[in-house]
Amino acid sequence: MSKVTMDKIVALCKRRGFVFPGSDIYGGFASTWDYGPYGIQLKENIKNFWWKTFILQREDIVGIDSSILMNPKTWEASGHIGNFADPLMDCKNCKERVRGDHILEKELGIEAVAGKSLDQITALVKEHKIKCPKCGKMDFTEARAFNMMFKTHQGVIEETSTAVYLRPETAQGIFVNFKNIQQSCRKKIPFGVGQVGKSFRNEITPGNFTFRTREFEQMEIEYFIDPKSDIKKSFEEWKELSKKWYMDLGIKEKNLRYREHDKDELSHYSTMTFDIEYEYPFGWGELMGVAYRGCFDLEQHQKFSGKNMEYLDPQTNEKYLPHVIEPAFGLSRATLTVLIDAYDEDEIGGETRVVMRFDPKIAPVRVAIFPLMKKPELSKVARSIFDKLKEDFVVEYDESGAIGKRYRRHDEIGTPHCITVDFDSLEDDSVTIRDRDTLKQDRIKISEIKEYLTQ
Ligand SMILES: [Zn+2]
Fold this sequence. Notes:
- With about 450 residues, the chain is of the alpha+beta class.
- The protein has 14 helices and 23 strands.
- Helix 11 links the parallel strand 19 (about 365-370) and strand 20 (about 395).
- The chain is globular and about 85 Å long.
- The protein starts with 5 loop residues before the first helix and ends with a helix.
- The mean pLDDT is about 95.
- Zinc ion binds near residues 93, 96, 134, 135 and 137.
């Protein structure tokens, strides 16, 4: 009914315990957010649904959980030390910070900028009198390298310790384990490896709540294929499977679209990338990416580690470096998108109701149980229902406050069903089940609640 805004989402998330500002009592900390009790449960449910869909229900994909801290050589091989360093320049007049390579590309085209050093970029910007995109002046600082990776030190004394990085993607933990996984699990190409975990990027412009943060959770799959197979076909399959997964999560198809990357926005490793975009309150934005990475990563790790990364085809006895299709889902971003997509307002008795229409399989609370009033005889029955249902569902027991207020609270938490135990329940062994979306109230036998909830 009413249009969802980011302000409404941020307010609801704090009010109902989904997401709080990080370090809140200290006034927050730039672009950090903490998941509250309902937020973590929603996120866990999304993660488990992903794991079930892609790891447990597929014979050709297995899981891994690799370290966040990796041998720094990993990042030399992957190109994150080097290519990931952006040449940043500041406008001396208005202090706008720009990517030197980007403002040059706009004027001269991508070929003129590719492979240029920091000094060359500084010189080219001067030579071609490139103007500040914000104020129009031509007065920039020199280009400085800005690496997106968080750097820290391993060892007791900073001066003598080794520089290490927080991983900027989970993918490399999969690539360095390619042989371990393939050999220990006797996997034959094509097969995939999936991983869920935190990654860190020192983004220059984080923002829009949890949409872009410096610390975030990814759900990535590296799918290894024979370079002689139909790569385009596998790529298309992953595009469709990825979109289908978001729709199974309950996200409306009308809010989703594909977008192909232009040549100049492709990552250093990719020749083909598609985003799935979602229409956020602030416009269309990336929900996930599907990238064809070729054999870039395995080849680089083979070169930098000196270890053979080739796959031996047991049928043909042929050795080759597999190619890779990477569907890169984001857990943090999927969670935000679900929150936005589920948000709705309608009217009950002349009052506006805010309701989160989560798909029941990911709702943070599946069912809430209320005794109509705080009376021992009602509580006893309600408690026994709670104890039975908690074996199979996430259940919440709530006996404080007016019944209408309890309903309203669980509408905002997105609880699909509320069960009320009243005085009649003591006579007829039945309860009232209220449906969050239709507001319909059914009277059913206590012994049939589980069956009712599972259909
Ligand atoms: Zn300026």
